Amino acid sequence: MEFLNSLEVLNHLLVFNTLTARILAGIFIILFTSSIGSFLNVVIYRVPIKKSIVKPGSYCPKCKNSIKWYHNIPVLSYIFLKGRCAYCGEPYSYRYCLVEFLTAFLAILFFIKNGYAIDMQYIKFLTFMMFGLVIIFIDFDHKLILDVHNYPLIALGLIFSLLGTIPFWQSVAGAVIGFVIFYLIALIYYLTKKADGLGGGDIKFITAVGAFTGIAGTIFVIFFSSFLAIIASIAVRKGKQEIAFGPYLVIAALLYFYLGDMIIHWYLGLFLNNI
User: Fold this and answer.
1) Is the pLDDT of residue 270 over 70?
2) What is the pTM of this model?
3) Among residues 77, 100, 118, which one ends one of the domains?
4) Where is average pLDDT lowest: 41-55, 113-127, 168-182, 209-223?
């Protein structure tokens, strides 16, 4: 109980009320989270091919030269070096810069949405967002959502609920509902089509989403991710090829973090007004 009380005190202390404090906090968040984004790039590239994320340090895949720290400043180095290796001139994928930018941008956006507070809700969002970005790009590349990301996310979602972000029963119920719905969809699809419709990674990830967001968040994410995936399938792939579903689950979950309550209240208001 003393530990939980100290966390509650910490939450109240890290609210930035003045413009100067908000600007300084924003600068710190941008620097910190863009650096985290640089690390996420390492995870995205190395984990699926079972390489260490610790050793060796960052290096050019063509000339094998180690990248100096001043050539590895998030976003800025990519811009100044025009997306190329400082030694051999080999072009780097724009994705490196994109991941660093997205990590900082999404973190700042939620900082504002969260009332300029760095509290347990904010830490919870950062945790999910960072895992989510990794999942998006690995799933795009390899059509996989790895257990090494899913299982910690499920556990973390439950832990954050114990720390007061949502009621624990909501976290458990959201996880169970997400798992059951996706498992039944996958089972029915397999029995009727004799093929996999949803991968095991998708089923585990929606379980993690449920643990983070509760019942309302789980239903919200299932609906919006399905809608986004259908639109993308029609617009890009014309429904003929397998699509990676993980990115749409992540996007829908992030949408819930930012706008979920507003969208749900708006929809319920329309529904109740028509009764």
Assistant:
1) no
2) 0.89
3) 118
4) 41-55
Lowest mean pLDDT among 79-83, 154-158, 167-171, 240-244: 240-244
Predicted local confidence at residue 4, as pLDDT: 45
Q: Is residue 2 part of a domain?
A: no
Instruction: Kindly indicate the confidence band of residue 241, based on its pLDDT and cuts at 50, 70 and 90.
Output: low
In this structure, are 126 and 250 located in the same domain? yes
Give domain status of residue 1, yes or no: no
What are the DSSP calls for the chain, one per residue? Answer: -HHHHHHHHHHHHTB--SHHHHHHHHHHHHHHHHHHHHHHHHHHHHGGGT--SSSS-SB-TTT-PBPPGGG--TTHHHHHTTTB-TTT-PBPPTHHHHHHHHHHHHHHHHHHHTTSB-SHHHHHHHHHHHHHHHHHHHHHHHS---HHHHHHHHHHHHHHHHTTSS-HHHHHHHHHHHHHHHHHHHHHHHHHHSS-SS-HHHHHHHHHHHHHHHHHHHHHHHHHHHHHHHHHIIIIITTSS----HHHHHHHHHHHHHHHHHHHHHHHHHHHHT-
